[in-house]
Structure prediction request, 656 residues.
Amino acid sequence: MPKPTLATCSLAGCFGCHMSLLDIDERILELVELFDLDRSPLDDKKVFDSIVDVGFVEGGCANEHNVQTLGEFRAHCKVLIAVGACAINGGVPALRNAFSLRECLEATYVGDTPDADHRIPFDADLPLLLDRVYPAHEIVKIDYFLPGCPPSADTIWEGLKELLAGRTPGLPYQLLKYD
Amino acid sequence: MIEARKIVVDPVSRVEGHGKVTIRLNADGSVGETRFLVVEFRGFERFIRGRPYWEVAMIVQRLCGICPVSHHLCAAKAMDKIAGVDRLTVAADKVRRIMHYGQVLQSNAVHFFHLASPDLLFGFEGPVEKRNFVGTIENYPEVAKWAIFVRKFGQSVIKAVGGKKIHPSLAVPGGVNKNLSIAERDALRIDADRVVAWCGDALELCKRLIREDAARLEAFGTFESSYVSLVRADGAMDLYDGGLRAIGSDGATIFDGVTPETYDDVIGDEVRPWSFMKFPYIRSLGKEQGWFRVGPLAQVNCCDFIDTPLAEEARLDFKRPGGGKPIHATLYQHWARVICMLHAAEKVKELLYDDDLQGEDLVISGERRPEGAAWIEAPRGVLYHRYRVDGDDLVTNAKLAVATTNNNEAINRSVNKVAIDYLTGHEITDVLLNNIEVAVRAYDPCLSCATHALGDMPLLVTLEAPDGAIVATRARG
Prediction:
């Protein structure tokens, strides 16, 4: 029987949830026994060519590219998990929601520099930024949420193992931390 | 008929964060402009305004989950100055240092082992399904073991002093909130020797892989450049603090001993409309000539010596072919990275046998100042933060210049060189795609960091006609 498959992506996050996945340390050896890694920034598979069992989504949506990737994950993953604070409620990137996008761009590219010729980047090669940062569940249906910034390696590991066993992950209180 | 076209690599994978590559072809089929773009934007510079200054070290580390400690400590160092502290207590300084060396160790391990080494182990043209860390686990279990346990050890150092492996809490303005306890120290001591030995084994492996294909690897995406890194007052490599030194491609000093307060005097940056990542340059050389490289290659090229024995021996061996001149080979950044990883392991071990880390005098304060600037050598190169804070303790202004941003022009140039060397006709071949990614990956670009104002590089190639119409696309995977 083929192994179940796992796909991962990092949208408007910091990659910390992926790093926390690596923090399962020697259990990585078990993980690759349990799952085949499908599309993921950890390998060179960049597009879906089949239906995947579990999708691991880090980060919310800050630009049109994030929305497109999240839509592809929803369309190809039987179960989609929003992992970490940014996927669940926008996280630190969503702090920009209190300000206009223009203000944020100006603070980064125009303000506080002795160089007078600075301007906001614009180019067809750059994806359009969204007016604000959206959590994953406001864009597509999400099946499960793993909280934490990032969720600890133990939390991610227990969550994945429970899903694999066909159970709704009922994580003990000690594994649910929100910072 | 031949038309001008554009090739897009999106996203570039096995780098940390989100970016893409475009190659514009001229009408005669030759390579025109190439671009390595950062496609994400976060806006930290704006939303950090109005936050209390003591909160900043906790927020800005969320720029990057790969090297959060670098941002955490760099912000804290800037906030030390706001708090009127120029010199921390010995205990606080050393506790921060052990956390930083733990970070350099784990981050360099992730990049070398998990992300980059599959290219060297399986070959750039190796089968795509193998050329990743799972392939390493299945085919090179010994290397996978080093990867897992070196990273685990570095992360354990961070957790011991910061409470968590990712996004820890340790530094506060003027010091740290805890020391390294005897129990934590003793637990880490158990593995310290083994980790140093495994880093030494990784160095031998890296050297062997590079020497097997030296002629090709040395020329791959390579050009001469200037280098910038922090150096201790006596010329030693210092990844936590020091003066800024810039050297030219011949090794001659451009500037030295610069302090963070005068950063704007020596380094300028240019914004180009097509990328969210800025282009820094050495002001005295101007925008055209002033670009430079940072990161392990700069860290090893700029210093006069390394103050730990195994890494110093490795540095001498690395630099021997240059006869005292800098080493410029783009892919040798992996080799330099392993030298820095070994140095960090030696430093952690040294600090585990230093009783100052159990000191109790952890926080001091002085006369409040309105502005604080600081830098640190993140694993990917020099990182700079500057903040202004008002009388109510709220941040009014922030500038963040991350390591990957400093390498922006160099990454673009490496992509350009690889495109010229490997692109023939209009075929978007796998070899071309792989080689572009290998060149980008050599810089270990942390697009998460660069997105702050950046983050995920998977690979899609688009051919575009002169009028912008897409002629063909091809994705790998």
